[in-house]
């Protein structure tokens, strides 16, 4: 079995995955706390370093690039210093940003995290609360349609920052069908969309509860079946944190996948790793159960790292062989 999974991971190389969704810049301000402020009962963080990495849909693309795939990112940034920094980061990480649209007057979504030691002290978000509007979405779709050549798979990443609406989802499903590839979706729990025609929807447990609308005490098995009916999609994968994952496929029994994480330092971006690894696995010939197992191992690696992290194929294959 490990030989089969390693073969799938080896097949990631060169797979062309289009990632569409909310693009962000993640900024980490790292330092140490040595005293409490005399002005207010808050820690004083002495800054030692600042780092920035792609976030949101850009982190999904970054995971795909780190695993040997060829990501193409489609989304919206601002015509601002954060947007220019993000474009530079995409280039450094070999992420094709040809379908990233710059919108004058709209800020690049930026999440700034102040970290003392291994503890996050505060997060500061800079973003526009408004919808992007139909004209900007038309520009985005126009850029997507111009992407040349074969696409092996499409990921839709919804962080509820104004990019995704039902019309965009419907057009992406048609686009995927026309290009002969699959669409997988990482949804947002606050958004009530339908995804009929998508290959897989992958909410976390909190999002699944919100989207199913059955109350907080519902068991994952009932949640999954309810979401299959609600969305009319082929499959639903619910990530359950330390309890692993549950895969629901139409006409098949529930498939449970226990967690493989040995240490958990930071869950930031773990869902991005899951959806990116699933897309690469499906593009490499895996079935949904194989893809979910491989993605579970990938998530087990990245939660052992601090910050918005990625992993390599060597790390993933080591984790698969260890398991």
Please explain how this structure is put together:
This protein has helices at residues 2-10, 57-66, 81-92, 134-145, 166-179, 205-212, 220-231, 270-283, 288-302, 313-322; strands at residues 16-21, 23-36, 43-56, 70-78, 96-103, 109-116, 119-126, 153-157, 182-186, 200-201, 235-239, 245-249, 255-257. It has one domain (2-24, 55-106, 129-322): Ribokinase (UDP-N-acetylmuramoyl-L-alanine:D-glutamate ligase). Strands 5-4-1-8-9-10 form a 6-stranded parallel beta sheet, with helices on both faces. Strands 3-2-6-7 form a 4-stranded mixed beta sheet. Helix content is 36%, strand content 28%. It contains 10 helices and 13 strands. It is globular. The termini are close together. Strand 4 (70-78), helix 3 and strand 5 form a beta-alpha-beta unit. By secondary structure, it is α/β, with parallel strands linked by helices.
| Largest sheet strand order | 5-4-1-8-9-10
Which stretches are low in confidence, meaning pLDDT under 50 for 5 or more residues running? none
Mean pLDDT across every amino acid position: 90
Gap between N and C termini, in Å? 11 Å
Counting helices, strands and paired strands, the structural category is alpha/beta
> Considering DSSP H and I runs of 4 or more, what fraction of the residues is helical?
25-40%
The Rg value, from CA coordinates, equals 19 Å
Assign the CATH superfamily. Answer: Ribokinase
- CATH fold name, please? UDP-N-acetylmuramoyl-L-alanine:D-glutamate ligase
Shape assignment: globular
CATH class: Alpha Beta
Strand content: 25-35%
Q: Biggest β-sheet, characterized?
A: 6 strands, parallel
Estimate nothing, just give the exact number of structural domains.
1
- Counted beta strands: 13
